């Protein structure tokens, strides 16, 4: 017997956590179904959480992180607290040997998405398909049928179960030189929960990324909460005593995700992010994370000073490329 349950239903949080524990991607920003890192703050009160689960008896099969809000032009928009909506899967629910999910669970997932779109009539919907277990999400099929525009993105995933020596051997030779330069010339600091909280109280954290600079940005507030709860950290580099680079990482017990990295004015005429990312990999391994995700867009187009720092190439750290799909419906 399959059914859909929503955030207001009894047992939702328990079932969500069960699904998340078996999700092969485990993006930390979707860890608690919206009610933990995003949903409880007054700045997010204009978002309506429409996240839901597809259940098979007492077993969650699919989860969808989804919110609705009205933008400043009065238009309905669907996403996830300022990020893309996304789906999550319980890999233990995959049916062998088809390597897919039961047709009834797929039908219910697609039917509920259709119902929400018909009900909300969004001006725009942004959705991230993590392509979990190598399978395109049934939600992507619905959005494509409705005219959604897909963009294929690539996430570089590094296996942290390798020894530190093996991880370093997998780093491209040219990248190793940049890492070593940074380790010799930068004062590199990993900022975790205790230090982060103290800085927030005394001087504020230097959020330089356009994705997080606005103090009312839902993503920024979620990042702060993740760090304060021990599920995130900053790696910062100083050159001659001046902060010149800062990167944010969020993690679960198993995975660590690179969120953004910035090179600030006054940075030396050398790429500086490489050393910070290597430090984050080492820190994540010490935390017993088994997977390090360099993200879909490791460095934004404007995050390095033009003419001074070369673009960071995710592949130079080794690992494997995993496909992701971003689908946009409407909004034009």
Would you give an account of this structure?
- This protein folds into 2 domains: 2-147, Aminopeptidase (3-Layer(aba) Sandwich), CATH 3.40.630; 157-322, Aminopeptidase.
- With 332 residues, the protein is of the alpha+beta class.
- The protein has helices at residues 12-21, 103-120, 138-145, 164-169, 173-185, 193-202, 218-228, 273-286; strands at 2-6, 48-49, 52-56, 59-65, 67-70, 76-79, 85-89, 124-129, 149-159, 187-191, 232-239, 242-251, 255-263, 291-293, 320-330.
- It has a 15-stranded mixed beta sheet that branches.
- Helix 2 packs across helix 3.
- The protein contains 8 helices and 15 strands.
- This is BioF2-like acetyltransferase domain-containing protein.
- It comes from SAR86 cluster bacterium.
- InterPro entries: Acyl_CoA_acyltransferase.
Q: How are the elements arranged and paired?
A:
Layout lengths: L1 E5 L5 H10 L26 E2 L2 E5 L2 E7 L1 E4 L5 E4 L5 E5 L13 H18 L3 E6 L8 H8 L3 E11 L4 H6 L3 H13 L1 E5 L1 H10 L15 H11 L3 E8 L2 E10 L3 E9 L9 H14 L4 E3 L26 E11 L2
Parallel strand pairs: 6-8, 7-8, 13-14
Antiparallel strand pairs: 1-3, 2-5, 3-4, 4-7, 5-6, 8-15, 9-14, 9-15, 10-11, 11-12, 12-13
């Amino acid at each position: 017997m399959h059914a859909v349950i929503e955030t207001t239903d009894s047992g939702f949080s328990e079932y969500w956590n069960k699904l998340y524990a078996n999700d092969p991607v485990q993006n930390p920003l979707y860890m608690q179904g919206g009610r933990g890192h995003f949903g409880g703050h007054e700045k997010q009160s204009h978002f309506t959480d429409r996240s839901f689960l597809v259940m098979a008896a007492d077993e969650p099969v699919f989860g969808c992180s989804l919110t609705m809000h009205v933008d400043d032009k009065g238009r309905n928009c669907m996403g996830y607290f300022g990020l893309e909506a996304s789906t999550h899967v319980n890999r233990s629910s995959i049916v062998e040997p088809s390597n897919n999910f039961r047709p009834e669970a797929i039908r219910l997932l697609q039917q509920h998405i259709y119902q929400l779109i018909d009900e909300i009539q969004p001006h725009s919907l942004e959705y991230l398909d993590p392509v979990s277990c190598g399978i395109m999400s049934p939600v992507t099929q619905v959005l494509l049928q409705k005219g959604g525009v897909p963009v294929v993105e690539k996430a570089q995933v590094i296996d942290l179960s390798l020894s530190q020596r093996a991880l370093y051997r997998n780093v491209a030779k040219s990248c190793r030189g940049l890492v070593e330069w940074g380790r010799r010339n930068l004062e590199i600091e990993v900022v975790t929960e205790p230090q982060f909280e103290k800085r927030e109280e005394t001087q504020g954290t230097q959020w330089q990324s356009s994705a997080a600079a606005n103090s009312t940005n839902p993503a920024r507030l979620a990042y702060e909460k993740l760090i304060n709860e021990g599920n995130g950290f900053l790696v910062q580099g100083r050159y001659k005593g001046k902060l010149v680079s800062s990167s944010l990482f969020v993690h679960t017990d198993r995975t660590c995700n690179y969120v953004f990295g910035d090179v600030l004015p006054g940075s030396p005429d050398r790429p500086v992010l490489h050393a910070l990312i290597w430090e984050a990999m080492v820190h994540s391994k010490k935390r017993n994370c088994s997977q390090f995700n360099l993200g879909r867009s490791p460095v934004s187009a404007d995050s390095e000073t033009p003419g001074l720092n070369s673009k960071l190439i995710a592949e130079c750290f080794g690992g494997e490329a995993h496909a992701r799909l971003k689908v946009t419906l409407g909004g034009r």
